[in-house]
Amino acid sequence: MIFLIFIALLTGTTLAYDWHDPQYYSFSPQVGSGKGLSYAITGKGRITGVRVWEARNSFIYGFQFRYGHTWTDVAGRELGQKQEIELFDDEAIVAISGKYAHNIQSVVFTTNLGRSLFAGRPIGHSFNMYPENENAELRFISGRFQGAISSMGTHWALVTEPYGTNGKYLQ
Fold first, then answer.
1. What is the DSSP string of 69-97?
2. Of 97, 77, 110, 90, nearest to 48 (Cα)?
């Protein structure tokens, strides 16, 4: 009997706050060939920094995010020229655009403050990724890697953690 009550409460709580509801979460489908090993860059809290490795005038080799003060593992490879942006306290990634062919050729991370990180060579088919909810921000990316980044998709959501100072959350 207690088990049934627990299940009923759990189900009610889950249904009351559906993270798959478009108002809370959206997904921009992957672009690129999708060949190779899968990757996902995730972390706890807000994204506070982005690194991208690019081949000179060519394609994207790797991505790395910082959540708070902690850098994730690199998705792909640390090869070529590294481009980096550290986000300000009240800043978030709100759009990603670029070009792709077999691999991701170029990428532009754009913030709510109008700043951008550009990497790669803009050749190929265009893509534009952004959240369905205007108050959402980038939470993580996923895709595939085969020598270079062969595909990427983006996951957007409302973030409840307050902005902080250089990755330190406000009390």
1. TEEPPPEE---SEEEEEE--TT--EEEEE
2. 90
Are 85 and 93 spatial neighbours (Cβ–Cβ below 8 Å)?
no
Q: How far apart are CA 155 and CA 169, in angstroms?
A: 22
pLDDT of residue 163: 64
Tokens 């790395």 found at: 64
Could you give the CA distance from residue 135 to residue 112 in angstroms, rounded to a whole number?
10
Residues across the chain: 171
pLDDT tens, residue by residue, 98-124: 999 999 999 999 999 999 999 999 999
- 8 A C-beta contact, residue 41 and residue 72: yes
Quote the CA–CA distance of 97 and 44 in Å, as a whole number.
24
Cα radius of gyration (the chain): 18
